[in-house]
Amino acid sequence: AKAMEAEALRSEEDAQKAYEDFVKGTNASVQSKGKDIVNKSETKAKAESDFIEAKEAKEGVMLELEQLSNYNANLHSSCDFVLKNFSIRQSARLKEIEAIQQAKTILSGAQ
């Protein structure tokens, strides 16, 4: 009976030791997983922050591109107007030069 009692006590001590080892392992695992959660949450927050910054930067660039496109269109229409009227303006200037030369000739003959 004493041998059975001693064996039962030894079995109980072994079971208690195994349980304590299991609890220690589980607690260590819980702590490790908790640290992983914190690290991953920080990484996720940083990624979300970077995403928002990139999105805002993209919106700014798109607005600038739109403004540049409008400016380009305005310049293009202005240049088209100048090119379209260049020959008309050139012929008008030539007529003015001829008229000035004729007036100069008339005035120099009058002296």
Structural write-up:
This protein is an all-alpha fold. The protein contains one helix and no strands. The N and C termini lie far apart (157 Å).
The radius of gyration computed from the alpha-carbon positions, rounded to a whole number of angstroms, is 47 Å
What percent of residues are in strands? under 5%
Structural class by helix and strand composition: mainly alpha
Please count the helical segments.
1
Low-confidence stretches: none
Mean pLDDT: 93
Q: Report the major sheet.
A: none
Q: Care to count the β-strands?
A: 0
Order of helices and strands: H
What shape does the CA trace take?
rod-shaped
**In percent, how helical is the residue content?**
over 70%
